[in-house]
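Proteins fold. Shown next:

***
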Amino acid sequence: MFEITGDDIALLNDTDLRTLIGRLCEADLRRRGHSTSYVTWGGNQTAKDGGLDVYVALPSKTSHQIHPHDKTPER
């Protein structure tokens, strides 16, 4: 097990942060016995598409939007 600090997150660029969130979602699905194929991410992060960055398509849908301003210590 390892620890990720706020300082570690602040060092990530937008693409790496999205990849981290996507992989954490995949790990959580594996832990719960679900296929990782339910998780998708990619494409242009600055596209005017409503900002959907990481999408988990389970019966109860969950998504995460990643913004540079989200990488502040209070978030």
Remarks:
- The first strand starts at residue 39 and ends at 41.
- The chain has one domain: 6-69.
- The chain has a mean pLDDT of 79.
